[in-house]
Amino acid sequence: MKKRQLLYGLATFVPGVTKLAGRGAGSSASAGYCYSVWFRHLVLAGHSGLNTVPATVAELGPGSSLGIGLAALLCGSERYLAFDVVAHARPSQNLAVLEELVALFARRADIPDAQAFPEIFPRLDSYAFPKHLLSEQRLQAALSPGRIERLRASLLNPKARDSLVQYRAPWSSEAVLERETVDMIVSQAVLEHVDDLQGTYRAMRAWLRPGGFISHQVDFRCHNTAEGWNGHLAYSDLVWKLIRGKRPYLINRETFSGHLRMLGEEGFARPYTRPSQLPSSVQRNKVAPRFLDVPESDFTTCDAFIQAERL
Q1: What is the tens place of the pLDDT at every residue in 225-250?
Q2: How many other CB atoms are there within 10 angstroms of residue 302's CB atom?
Q3: Nearest-angstrom CA–CA distance, 43 and 274
Q4: How far is CA 204 from CA 60, 125, 174, in A?
Q5: Which candidate, 241, 220, 237, 221, places its Cα nearest to that of 229?
Q6: By the 8 A CB rule, do 59 and 185 touch?
Q7: Cβ-proximal residues to 99 (8 Å cutoff; 6+ apart), any chain
Q8: Where in the chain are the domains?
Q9: Which CATH superfamily is domain 3-310 in?
Q10: Against a cut of 0.90, is the pTM above it?
């Protein structure tokens, strides 16, 4: 056990410490990171036979910038909705990321690969700029000076009536958005942090139009709460509650099979998955009771890319 994590969790019961625990940044402040993540989701949507021209894109947990959504808008999407538990993104940072993204699109830059960002999954077979998905006509319209200026204005005033960007933090229920108004919902290493995961899948289905889809990369590793990559599965519910403390979020310890089960229960169809594997760091007979009956593959699946459609 990582005693430091337990002590920190206990410390969050002290007034003021939870504010520090809620701060975050992440890699999304990098335009290259956002460009790489967005195109991985878009390219694999094409591979799955899903809509690669989503008019409205929503993102869960954008983190320190709205760059992934800005990349979607620069591909021709018409509206971007960002939902986070804690507000991290700042207008000045978003404007800087936008300018860097415009430069990447202007030169039709290749997608940054595993050498540039070794921690980004899923992997792609080709990192060439996806010209087969983005016509020049579409790109020229999306990158026109007038539209770029409108994007800048949207970042400065997301509450304006004609804003292309909406940023809502915190959000807590599916009522935050109208039903059947979204074409694609994306997240990158976020769903492992969601407490009410089943409710979130239910909300996503409610938001999607028929034919809309979800696209998520999920990380099942311990996030530094244990010595081995999945050692957190050995903690009892009580120990885990103490490690979590009063932090606004940590990880939910849901397994890959749990995600697939919820997809089916909430009415998603045609799931396409790309799991990655690592040897388990914990023996099955050492895990907490709640994990004793999960499939053996859950002990070796360290992350997974998941896309599924709402019929």
Answers
A1: 999 999 999 999 999 999 999 888 89
A2: 20
A3: 13
A4: 10, 29, 8
A5: 221
A6: yes
A7: none
A8: 3-310
A9: Vaccinia Virus protein VP39 (3.40.50.150)
A10: yes
